[in-house]
Design brief:
alpha+beta, three-stranded antiparallel sheet, Beta-clip-like, 174 residues, three-stranded mixed sheet, 13 strands
């Protein structure tokens, strides 16, 4: 089953700039900056809290393999995100504040080890976007890139760690 570009994250006071959820030009709802966000800024951090849990990439993939997913599988699928290397973070409890990041091949936020960095200066009113390949594995093939019509590419955890580290260094050194 393919779902077009909607990834929801449960965030616990880890967003560092004012944002709002509104109709996206990409698809559905999106998260928009309500204030200017300077390049290199930390936009958000996913923290481990009492309402979240970490699991291995192997366990994350298992949740996608079952034809009849359990309730826990559905929670992992809906909220799971690559955290650091081959460790995934997911929410065990539903919270009221949900953020909507849409995918882009040219995102304005770099996701690296649970932290979102502004890749460029982001103006108030702009939609915040992320490249979904940093979140998923080959098992979770449910995201379609609206820009290309193809599934979002997935890479191995070590490659992604190296790639996001290099991108972060490029951003911080520019």
């Amino acid at each position: 089953m393919c779902v077009k570009l909607k990834l929801r994250f449960i965030i616990y006071n880890m967003l560092f700039f004012k944002t709002k959820i509104q109709k996206s030009n990409i698809e559905g709802s999106g998260l928009f900056a309500e204030e200017n966000i300077p390049k290199k800024s930390i936009v958000f951090i996913f923290l481990i809290s009492k309402n979240s849990k970490t699991i291995s990439e192997e366990k994350f993939n298992e949740s996608w393999k079952r034809k009849k997913p359990t309730q826990k599988d559905l929670i992992i699928r809906r909220s799971g995100v690559r955290y650091i290397r081959s460790i995934f973070l997911y929410c065990i409890k539903n919270e009221r504040k949900t953020l909507f990041f849409n995918h882009s091949n040219r995102p304005n936020i770099l996701y690296h080890c649970g932290i979102g960095f502004a890749k460029f200066d982001i103006k108030a009113g702009e939609e915040l976007t992320i490249d979904y390949k940093y979140f998923d594995t080959n098992q979770s093939d449910n995201f379609i890139n609206i820009e290309t019509g193809k599934k979002v590419e997935k890479y191995e955890s070590d490659y992604l760690l190296k790639k996001s580290t290099k991108e972060l260094l490029d951003i911080l050194n520019s």
